Amino acid sequence: MSKKYSCHKISEGKAQAEAVVSKDRVMFYLMRPEDGVVIEASHNLEGKSIAKKVMVFPGGKGSSVVQADGMYQLNLHGNMPAAMIIQYPETVLVSSAIIMEIPMVDQVDPAFYETVQDGDTVVVNADEGYVEIL
Fold this sequence. Notes:
Shape: globular
Number of helices: 3
Helix content: 10-25%
Radius of gyration: 13 Å
Order of helices and strands: EEEEHEHEHEE
């Protein structure tokens, strides 16, 4: 049984993919561009790939330069997330998602965060303002 949750569009688009859920803030510079694997020691996603997945995370960390470069390198290798669901958007992440045409949403119904788990299939429809767990 699927469940839809309302959200706010940051970057337009629609994607459906497996979810990867982070409780920790993310630094895109600490991901291997070749496969999207998180290499940051002690991060709750360490060893997991974010490539072509719906990334659910609180927000970014680190300087704007390393965030933008990390996202750019992932994009060059075709290993950006399929979509991003962010709790606390920041200018660099927002502008990078828009430029790289990655659907991004925020202001998701809090019940979503209590329900979504790694491996769930999630639809992000930024254009129509909802996320859905299938």
